[in-house]
UniProtKB/TrEMBL annotation:
Protein name (record): EF hand domain-containing protein
Keyword field contains Calcium: yes
Assigned keywords, A-Z: Calcium
Domain of life: Eukaryota
Every EF-hand domain range: 40-75
Pfam family, one: EF-hand_7
SUPFAM superfamilies to which the protein is assigned, alphabetical: EF-hand
Gene3D superfamilies: EF-hand
GO molecular function, one term: calcium ion binding
InterPro entries registered for this protein in UniProt: EF-hand-dom_pair, EF_Hand_1_Ca_BS, EF_hand_dom
Organism: Hexamita inflata
Length: 177
């Protein structure tokens, strides 16, 4: 795992020519692909931007840009979980704690209760500080997504059953009218 925050900050300042304190998406794409020679398509850039854009303003401030470069330097772009792991790793520690896990879950718009996320991370933590290594993170993400999918399926099943009940009830009422 490679982290050089000072260098990331220097790179940001070099790209922030007008000293706006941010870099927009097109500037970022040009910087990443042309200057830093990172092979990335616009779709991947947009996804990664959304993951690190903490204030959701659509541009990269210096700290967000540093996090973006951290992901670029460490993640495997062909492995979604790798990108998610480094996007979740806000403190560049190489592990994910329960708060970082919750934050990435929310960024992905999964409606998983905080208690479940915390409980799952604590149960599977494999580091001395109750955090997850990348390998364990993959397993936990699979588990949480599976639980979320099952919950969503149950909700859909209940809606379907309710709709069938109403339909049957309406048919019975029509029959007796």
């Amino acid at each position: 795992m490679t982290v050089n925050i000072y260098k990331y900050e220097q790179i940001f300042r070099a790209f922030d020519i007008k000293n706006f304190k941010y870099i927009d998406k097109s500037q970022l794409f040009q910087a990443i692909t042309n200057k830093l020679r990172i092979d990335m398509d616009m779709k991947t850039l947009e996804v990664m931007m959304a993951l690190v854009d903490d204030n959701n303003d659509g541009v990269m401030q210096e700290d967000e840009f540093c996090h973006f470069l951290y992901i670029c330097q460490n993640a495997d772009f062909n492995d979604t979980k790798s990108i998610l792991f480094y996007a979740a790793d806000d403190d560049y520690s190489g592990s994910i704690d329960k708060f970082e896990m919750l934050k990435i879950i929310k960024k992905l718009n999964y409606n998983i209760k905080q208690e479940l996320v915390f409980e799952t991370v604590e149960k599977h933590a494999d580091n001395y500080d109750q955090s997850l290594s990348y390998c364990t993170f993959q397993q936990v993400v699979n588990s949480l997504v599976k639980q979320y999918s099952l919950t969503q399926q149950r909700k859909e099943d209940r809606k379907l059953q309710s709709s069938r009940f109403l339909h049957t009830k309406n048919n019975i009422e029509v029959f007796f009218i």
